[in-house]
């Protein structure tokens, strides 16, 4: 137990309290050790009491139940309650986050960042504030992942933006629930927890709670500003409901009804007397689309696959044809009991919605999102424009020459569902260059086992005989960057032999290498990978970039004194520099690496400024800066990049405005950093301000300006050496 304390503390404790201190500390230490042993024996799913297929909503519900019983506030006599609840809270924080959950599923706890702040909310928070509307069926809780799809679905949404600790939000809750029940089936009632979705609420301009807004696709949101009671909410909502009333008579009744049916629209007909009296009768007619199998191969269809129960699709499905009419998507239904051969050939074994894209019976995509109208409409519109195909044993691209991106997934996995719309976006960007497919591992176990799929989603690029597993952000941009890097690798994969050859025995003087020593299971390493590739592209032509897999070459990494992952090093000349910065984004790493390149600009004094810049015969671009200025420090390596880009065309110089204040004042400098161009025109000159801090933009601006001035330059000056 003594060994858990630093040596200095041990000596102090022994000197001050040789016996009594240990009698006090020992029970606490034993409690911590016992809880650690208890937690280590269970995985996060077991701690929360949920299956590995649990949805985010199920995980939230399970955690809330545990929070109400295990919270230290409810167990004041249990010295281990704090540590136990910390473990449960940690499990919840990991499993509710899509990226962390994937890392945990694939690598266990060792794939996660070890840091955790040890904080949690009070028992009252979990009892009264933890998701006010989570259990309400009529109120749909939206988050950042599905908000845009909902409000742009074509339906009308009335959304309550609330904050869990807001007393007015809690006062509104009973009214909002009653209102939602009354408006069920008329408009959509939603809620956004701004405590969990702070960025979304800020992006939507929410600055007070509760804020109530009506959303209509393609139109500005309308804010409710009245007294928050049910009648006012209903009146406000109904002004946005529009209907079309058609007068039917003997001459048009059949043509109007048939025309509507052919467009997928139903009718609600009120039969009234000539005198305008009470309604005599009401009846509703709903359109049911029928089709034959051949149509699936030549037309775009949204198909509801059912298993015997004709009423299994909700009444909302009857609105689908109206919503999708302008997208030229037809809507139909297949009973897989009556047409079992078709469903078996498509590997459809349970009710689902699927889009057929009109390019063949096997070119379709299954919907795995929420089973609500707005989500299905959004999926159908996106799917027909994208190039993602549902794969099976018959069309899996194992031996095809063209490149394929295959997403191995499970429908119950939240990160998998979040990735699917990003795949559609990427497939549009790469149309004609790469094909995209998804494989459901809950159906095709053997195929997934053949490729050693251990976690979901796992995204793999098949390019002939080459197979590459994607590691990076679950976004279209991340996928595009990864594929771009496969075509033109910016990071060189190093082994002990190539490391020794290229870095220890550099081919020419002045060559600088940046190297990432990593382990595939390491969570921070995985987070760094896309940033490392992005940094490599930003440094192209200036610094060489490589990476070493320390799981594969463990002995070699130990010989290089690599003790933790990721270890980022720079090798300028014969030295070695380690990165100790807090931020590991591409731009921070680039700034650090560029600071080790030799200077391409020169420092100017008042004398050299007058003689070389104002009176000399060269073009100059200058950086006026102050050493204490943060933006100046950030811009400094960018200016060196600019100096190297313009070498031979324009000279680059820097003026320290703290040391040479009067020079900067005479030049009219009022802010730092300031970039100015001083072109040589054969006479005394003044600087021209360039409003950019990007080397490429500044270089283009300088060249364009010199091109404009070319007629005035009798003899193009040659840049002098030095």
TrEMBL record:
Give a GO molecular function annotation for the protein.
protein-folding chaperone binding
Q: Where in the cell is it found?
A: Endoplasmic reticulum lumen
Extract the InterPro entries matched here.
DnaJ_domain, ER_disulfide_reductase, ERdj5_TRX_C, ERdj5_TRX_N, J_dom_sf, Thioredoxin-like_sf, Thioredoxin_CS, Thioredoxin_domain
Q: Which domain of life is it from?
A: Eukaryota
Gene Ontology CC annotations of this record: endoplasmic reticulum lumen
Keyword Repeat: yes or no?
yes
Where it mainly occurs, coarsely classed, is endoplasmic reticulum
* GO BP: ERAD pathway; IRE1-mediated unfolded protein response
Residue ranges of every copy of the J domain listed in the record: 43-108
Residues spanning the membrane: 21-39
Give one Pfam family.
Thioredoxin
Report the residue ranges that make up the Thioredoxin domain in this protein.
128-242, 375-488, 559-711
Alphabetical UniProt keywords: Disulfide bond, Endoplasmic reticulum, Glycoprotein, Membrane, Oxidoreductase, Redox-active center, Repeat, Signal, Transmembrane, Transmembrane helix
Q: Which PANTHER family match?
A: DNAJ HOMOLOG SUBFAMILY C MEMBER 10
Could you identify this protein by its name?
DnaJ homolog subfamily C member 10
Q: Which organism is it from?
A: Astatotilapia calliptera (Eastern happy)
């Amino acid at each position: 137990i003594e060994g858990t304390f630093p040596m200095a503390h041990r000596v102090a404790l022994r000197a001050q309290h040789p016996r009594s201190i240990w009698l006090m500390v020992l029970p606490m230490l034993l409690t911590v050790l016992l809880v650690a042993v208890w937690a280590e024996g269970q995985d996060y799913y077991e701690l929360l009491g949920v299956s590995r297929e649990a949805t985010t909503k199920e995980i939230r519900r399970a955690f809330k139940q545990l929070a109400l019983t295990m919270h230290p506030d409810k167990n004041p006599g249990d010295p281990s309650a704090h540590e136990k609840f910390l473990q449960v809270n940690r499990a919840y924080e990991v499993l509710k986050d899509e990226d962390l959950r994937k890392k945990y599923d694939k690598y266990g706890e060792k794939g996660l960042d070890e840091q955790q702040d040890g904080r949690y909310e009070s028992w009252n928070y979990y009892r009264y504030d933890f998701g006010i509307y989570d259990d309400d069926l009529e109120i749909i809780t939206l988050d950042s992942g599905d908000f845009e799809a909902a409000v742009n679905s074509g339906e009308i949404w009335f959304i309550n933006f609330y904050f869990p600790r807001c007393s007015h939000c809690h006062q509104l809750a009973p009214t909002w629930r009653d209102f939602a029940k009354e408006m069920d089936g008329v408009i959509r009632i939603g809620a956004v927890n701004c405590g969990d979705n702070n960025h979304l609420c800020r992006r939507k301009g929410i600055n007070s709670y509760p804020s109530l807004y009506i959303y209509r696709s393609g139109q500005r949101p309308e804010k409710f500003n009245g007294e928050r009671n049910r009648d006012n909410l209903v009146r406000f909502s109904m002004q946005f409901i529009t209907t079309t009333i058609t007068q039917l008579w003997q001459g048009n009744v059949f043509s109007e009804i048939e025309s509507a049916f052919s467009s997928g629209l139903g009718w609600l007909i009120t039969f009234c007397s000539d005198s305008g009296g009470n309604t005599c009768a009401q009846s509703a007619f709903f359109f049911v689309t029928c089709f034959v199998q051949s149509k699936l191969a030549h037309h775009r269809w949204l198909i509801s696959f059912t298993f015997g129960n004709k009423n299994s699709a909700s009444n909302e499905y009857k609105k689908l044809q109206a919503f999708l009419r302008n997208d030229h998507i037809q809507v139909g239904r297949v009973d897989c009991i009556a047409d079992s051969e078709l469903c078996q050939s498509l590997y459809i074994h349970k009710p689902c919605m699927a889009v057929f894209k009109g390019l063949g019976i096997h070119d379709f995509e299954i919907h795995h999102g929420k089973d609500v109208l707005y989500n299905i409409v959004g999926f159908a519109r996106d799917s027909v424009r994208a190039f993602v195909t549902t794969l099976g044993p018959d069309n899996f691209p194992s031996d095809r020459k063209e490149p394929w991106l295959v997403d191995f997934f499970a429908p119950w996995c939240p990160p998998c569902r979040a990735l699917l719309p990003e795949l559609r976006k990427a497939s549009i960007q790469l149309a004609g260059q790469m094909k995209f497919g998804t494989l459901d591992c809950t159906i095709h176990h053997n195929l997934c086992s053949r490729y050693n799929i251990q976690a979901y989603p796992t995204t793999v690029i098949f390019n002939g005989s080459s197979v590459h597993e994607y590691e990076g952000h679950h976004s279209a941009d991340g996928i595009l960057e990864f594929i771009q890097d496969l075509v033109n690798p910016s990071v060189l994969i190093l082994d002990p032999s190539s490391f020794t050859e290229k870095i220890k025995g550099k081919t020419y003087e002045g060559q600088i290498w940046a190297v990432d020593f990593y382990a595939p299971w390491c969570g921070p390493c995985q987070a760094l990978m896309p940033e490392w590739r992005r940094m490599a592209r930003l440094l192209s032509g200036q610094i060489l970039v490589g990476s070493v897999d320390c799981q594969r070459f463990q002995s070699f990494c130990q010989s290089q004194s690599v003790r933790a992952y990721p270890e980022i090093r720079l090798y300028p000349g014969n030295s070695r520099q380690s990165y100790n910065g807090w931020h590991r984004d591409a731009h921070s790493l680039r700034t650090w690496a560029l600071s080790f390149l030799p200077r391409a600009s020169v420092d100017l004094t008042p004398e050299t400024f007058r003689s070389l810049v104002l009176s000399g015969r060269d073009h100059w671009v200058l950086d006026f800066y102050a050493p204490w200025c943060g933006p100046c420090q950030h811009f400094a390596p960018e200016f060196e990049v600019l100096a190297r880009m313009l070498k031979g065309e324009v000279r680059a110089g820097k003026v320290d405005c703290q040391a040479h204040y009067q020079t900067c004042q005479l030049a009219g400098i009022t802010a730092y950093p300031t970039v100015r161009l001083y072109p040589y025109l054969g006479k005394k000159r003044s600087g021209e301000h360039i409003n950019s801090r990007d080397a490429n933009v500044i270089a283009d601006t300088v060249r364009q300006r010199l091109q404009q001035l070319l007629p005035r330059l009798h003899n193009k000056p040659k840049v002098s050496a030095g």
